[in-house]
Amino acid sequence: MASIKSPSIKSPKAKTADECERLEQLPNIGPSLAEDLRLIGIHQPQQLRGKDAFVLYQKLCSVTGTRQDPCVLDTFMAATDFMAGAAPAPWWNYTAQRKALFGSV
């Protein structure tokens, strides 16, 4: 009998920072970026409060020894804003702001 692979189930995303208990519940954060956050010492969404997304991005680049795609910075900006109380927004909404603040990362 052939095994049937079940589709992966995505974590439900939090609608507010207060209801966010796991990194994967953050808007725009999937398993891979959650692991990246854990790699730099962020294990709970609340740890993102007051953090600078650019510093997190630089730390990830340093720890991995790789220049991360700039969209990772956009995603970190979205996550830190969300945990600061902003409404959920897609990461690409932060691209223009990232370019204005940091140029080509």
Give an overview of the whole structure.
The protein has one domain. The chain has four helices and no strands. Helix 2 packs across helix 3. The termini are far apart. Pfam families: Cdd1 (PF11731).
- The total of beta strands comes to 0
Count of spatially separate domains? 1
User: What general form does the structure show?
Assistant: globular
Low-confidence stretches: 5-9
What is the first-to-last residue Cα distance? 51 Å
Pfam family, one: Cdd1
Protein name: Helix-hairpin-helix domain-containing protein
Organism: Piscinibacter gummiphilus
Write the SSE topology:
Blueprint lengths: L30 H9 L13 H12 L5 H14 L11 H8 L3
Attribute tags:
mainly alpha, Helix-hairpin-helix domain-containing protein, 105 residues, globular, Cdd1
How would you sum up this structure in a few lines?
Helix content is 41%, strand content 0%. The chain is mainly alpha-helical and 105 residues long.
